[in-house]
Amino acid sequence: MDENDLNELKYIFSYLVDSFSYEVERDKKSGEIENMTRMLENDKKAIDKMKKGMRENMDEFVVIYNDFKVNEEKIMDYISSVTDQYYTKHSQDILSTISQLQHETENYIENGVKAMNQFFSLNPLTILNSSIEISAGKDAFDIRQSIQSSYGISYIFSLEPALSQFMKNPYFSSLYTGIKIPVLIAGDGSVNYENLDSYKLSGAKLSENILDCSFYNETSGNFIDFKYKISGPDIEIVFANNGEKVKITDNPDFMSHMDVKIMDDALGKLANEITGLTGKDRHLVSLKIDGEEILTTMSFEKVFFRIIKSDYIKSLVRELPENCENCENPDSISKELIRHRIHIIGKDEDYILSTLFG
Fold this sequence. Notes:
Layout: H1 3-64, H2 69-121, E1 127-136, E2 141-149, E3 153-159, H3 165-168, E4 180-185, E5 191-195, E6 199-207, E7 210-217, E8 223-229, E9 234-241, E10 244-247, H4 252-255, H5 260-276, E11 282-289, E12 292-293, H6 300-308, H7 311-319, H8 335-345, H9 349-357
Antiparallel strand pairs: 1-2, 1-6, 2-3, 3-11, 4-5, 6-7, 7-8, 8-9, 9-10, 11-12
Helix pairs in contact: 1-2, 1-6, 1-8
């Protein structure tokens, strides 16, 4: 078994098991909250039923003993006062317990999401395709990395723009100063250039070795769109002025007046800035299995079962040693360790073990 296979198993039976176990605990606490809420509602109904029954008995009694009617309201007022005091104290105790359970539930949710975030941050599954999109918000950039992986699982990370030096000052001059592109060639052969220093990033998408990005000039309103092939050099440049677009790279005369090497270096720097964010803090904001969003519902067991039911994972598990008493690598994983990890989930233990070991 190679190192990648070994790491995949370690991540599955550590972080993924943790996320599943937190889901189980969340469900237990949610069940307790539902039961206590229902109990409180039933207690209120029981008290109301008791008061109603006493009122009916009093009304029947007064029909026979009419001179007792003056005492009926006093008695019912007293009963209402006593039962209200009891219910107030009783409900406060239960609501306090519910509040504590809700706090514990929130902790399980937070920890479960953290464990799942850590699992996917390690890229444990085969990545089929990946892209990063940048959009300009009111105060900061929103950067999302979308990944489609094996097992029908897809997920999205939010990347932190503050961790990129370029994103702190997202002007073209932060990549390379003094770059100019030709935008007009007059009849006498003179060339008009557009200086890119003051152009600010407005959006970008990096996928399949292609960087598409757009910069705009806040003063003139002009836009410049780039399509850059990272393994190039292969660049497409479109200049937009007052809604009119000119594809610079389709015009040989324009290209003869442009330093393609410098442009390649600048866009290469931007691509590196973007990809560099994927190795830093990433926050899981979406997790889907077969297109179904499961992060918000914390249905992490669906991911766990989808992965462990695969023939590939089962074959890897069956290759493992029974225990690690004689393992050279102290970080090795064994069947014994997997059984222990499955036990802490607290749900479907026999079924999971049967799935993995037959």
